[in-house]
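Appendix B. Raw example, untouched.
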Amino acid sequence: MFADKREKALFKLSTEYAVQPEQLSEVIDKYVCLRQEVPKDEMTDLLKGKHSYMQTRTLSSNLFTAVNEYAETYFTGW
């Protein structure tokens, strides 16, 4: 059940920011294992489509915050 909640939250996050869930999961898993926050530049690389500089900056910043909150929520205690 916990895994289902985690997968649903990941899917919601990837849908909200239009990124591939598999790619997002790989990035999160990589940094959770290292016990580090996911860097913002990793978020920029995941964004699809053409965005202006300011849009990209805003989206990657928002995704950075959301991903790190997700990792803290679902991987606490690792």
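End of appendix B.
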